[in-house]
Automatic annotation (TrEMBL):
This is Agmatine deiminase. It comes from the Bacteria. The keyword RNA-binding does not apply. Pfam families: PAD_porph (PF04371). One of its GO terms (molecular function) is protein-arginine deiminase activity. InterPro entries: Peptidyl-Arg-deiminase_porph (IPR007466). Keywords: Hydrolase. It is an enzyme of class 3 (hydrolase). GO terms for biological process: putrescine biosynthetic process. Its EC number is 3.5.3.12.
Amino acid sequence: MSGARRHEVVGELGRMAHAIAHFEPLHVAVAPPHLDEARRLLPAAATLHPMPVDDHWMRDTGPTFVLDDAGSLHALRWNFNGWGWKIRPMPDADPKLAQRVALALDVATTSMPIVAEGGSWHVDGEGTLIVTQTSILNPNRNPGLTRREAEDVFRHWLGVTHVVWLPGSSLDTITDGHVDGIASFVRPGVLLATGADGNDGNDEWAREARENLRALRLARDACGRYFDIGLLPGIDFDALPTAVADDPDFAPEYVNFYLPNGGVVMASFGDVAADAQARDIVQRAFPDRRIAQVPLRGIARRGGGIHCCTQQQPAAVSR
């Protein structure tokens, strides 16, 4: 990453951290050589954990936190392999980050029997999991894995009872179609999704988006309900600088938001009309949460968003 691009990305990470810290305690993994820079950019209340870190995609490289039957916190490691060995050579920090994060937080951890990333699936808390075929069932992650075998893993380790499979994306050359660029739960039975109706274009990207939306509309959740789906707008690429709009990795997805306690931290991309419309839709979907919108071009030009950079950690439950 060039110096200018790194400066842009690091600045956005800092603003994202400040937005999240307004709602809940914040822990940040920081490469030791960048500790002084992190202290300048991050909220004073943030807890910094020095450790080897190669990139900022904590959702994918870090652990997934769950509560076990006793209500204790547990960390699941999904055996990150660079989104299907797209990173060659693999940085040493990436496959070891989940373990290091768990150790830093003194949380017990288990390696999963499959390769996955946290951005490839969503759960609703009532037994429903949504996941993409092009990610989990991709030979570059899990050669020969069947739907049933994957579902058995999700049921055992995530406590879900029903799995909704979306087609995903064959065009997404970075993540192979993560679900957090397609849809996100508002609450059980209710989703926000990337807009994909017939007037959104006839290129291959629009076709894939419509196929994913169609699958969501046909699906039912663990309670037998059809999903109530709100659509978020796409941006007008003509409203953005050419260098941004023409970047093939640019992923301006409003649905890639993070839900801290009492809030929503979501992106803006510089299309004033679409940014405002998306914020309004998200606020109506979450009337009891405060919306924080963070400008996000550098991170979006690396193919991800706010959800990709974050990972929630539930509190242990005393029983």
